[in-house]
Amino acid sequence: MALFKRRFADVVSRQLDLFSADNRAELDAIAAARRRYNASEAEEANEAFGEYAELRRDAADDLLELRDHYAAAMADEHEATYRKTFLQGACRRFPELAEDLRADARLDREIEREEDEDR
After folding, report:
1. pLDDT, tens digit, for every residue of 55-80?
2. Could you tell me how far CA 75 lies from the centroid of its own chain?
3. How many domains does the chain have?
4. Torsion angle of C-alpha atoms 53, 59, 61, 67, degrees rounded to 10
5. Which of 28, 42, 44, 45 is least surrounded by CB atoms within 10 angstroms?
């Protein structure tokens, strides 16, 4: 298992490098929206946070799409290790997206539990 985790760490690192390069404008927009939210007056805070949260969620969705596309071509016995490695790497690399990425991982675990219970 450790061999696959190391191998996936390299793959994930390269995927995150490409994501960062390909989505630089999107990541910069998230940082700018966070700054606008932090600097906003009380009356503007709700709208500013909504914009920030939407940009963050969109970027997290793009990352998860990248992960899912790669995982779809993988043997089932390695998929969980890859997904865990991806989540750890993505949260470390993009801490601003970590909350959204972890929420998706929790949802995935709940769905898996429900499917296991139905069997």
Report:
1. 999 999 999 999 999 999 988 888 88
2. 22
3. 1
4. -150
5. 42
